[in-house]
Amino acid sequence: MNIREDAEKLRQDIEDEQNLKLKIALFGQPGAGKSSLINLIVGQPVTQTGATTDMTTEAKVIEHEELLLVDLPGYGTSKFPPNKWMEQFQPEELDLFLCVFASKFHEADTTFFKQLKEKGRVCIFVRNKQDDLWEEGKTTEQLEAEIIADVHKHVGSAENVHFVSCRTKAGLTELVDAIYAALDPAKREKYARSAKAYSKEHLEAKKAACEKSVYKYAGLAAANGLNPVPGVNIGVDISIMLKQFNDIRKSYGLSDEKVNKLIPSLLPIGKRVLEYSTKEGIMILLKRYAGREASIQIGRYVPFVGQAIAAAAGFGMTLAAGKSYLNDCHQLAEQILEEELGIRQ
Ligand SMILES: Nc1nc2c(ncn2[C@@H]2O[C@H](COP(=O)(O)OP(=O)(O)O)[C@@H](O)[C@H]2O)c(=O)[nH]1
Ligand SMILES: [Mg+2]
């Protein structure tokens, strides 16, 4: 294949990747905390929470990067008659279900779960509002054991129950681990790129998934050598680099607002992350990495970008710039996470 064919294939690859969403549905009674959990999964307030959402009569679909989150109103309520849902949505098209509950396990949820099970769908049980678990004379462990026993009585003893609190964020890391474990590798990458990381392991998964995109975007930017890089006898497509850098930033949740609110010790790296996601900043990085062609191990990249692009002038430079930006974002996100986890003093 020549470089034009490689580039066309890459462009299509990137487009297909972005069009193919990971679809996760949350079901459970109104007020259980589905919307709150969606916001925590994404790491941003993408959907309304609270009493008003109980009025929702139709499933709400929230799109975030490569994720589609379906917020299903209370199953079995008059607004959501059981059979209608199965007709309206094809459970086969959804990758994962989270059954969210916060009080006694509901009969309607049991029915729905059994229907999902018959269709071979994977379902994770989430007992939210763990912070509210309290009863005179009983320990939290006893109460949790009772809830697990109740779920097992209704849906079978093979099911794990994850205790979380959207309020305190307790149990979130373990829940996200369970989501990772339930997804196939390609879908796991989508989750990693699009959802918030709650542990260093989640961040590492994010980095690995983003790195694959870096190869593709860098390849395409090098192949479309539109914009000459000053002082370097090679052109690259800056708009593609710009898109890539901003995708990485979004993936790590590093919005302008978030970066501007950083504690002073993180500000220098934060500023770098902002600066390099502009055309001028990208040019600076590209110039820094000009001449990287010689050191690149072409064979490693052929599976991602094709033979012609892996050997093309400019690919070493765009790849090094992309990786360097990814490293900066990753390092900053890691420090922010440590801060959130209270590891840093
Ligand atoms: N105490 C406590 N309240 C929560 C928790 N998660 C959600 N809530 C509250 O429960 C209410 C319903 O939450 P929402 O996410 O809108 O539920 P949904 O109807 O299932 O989408 C809201 O007032 C939330 O603030 C939690 O973990 N603990
Ligand atoms: Mg809701």
UniProtKB/TrEMBL annotation:
**GO MF terms on file?**
GTP binding; hydrolase activity
IRG-type G domain: from which residue to which, for each copy?
20-195
Keyword Chloroplast tagged = no
The family database entries (SUPFAM superfamilies) matched by this protein are listed as:
P-loop containing nucleoside triphosphate hydrolases (SSF52540)
Q: Which Pfam families match?
A: IIGP (PF05049)
Q: Which GO terms describe its cellular component?
A: membrane
> Which UniProt key words apply to this protein?
GTP-binding, Hydrolase, Nucleotide-binding
Protein known as: IRG-type G domain-containing protein
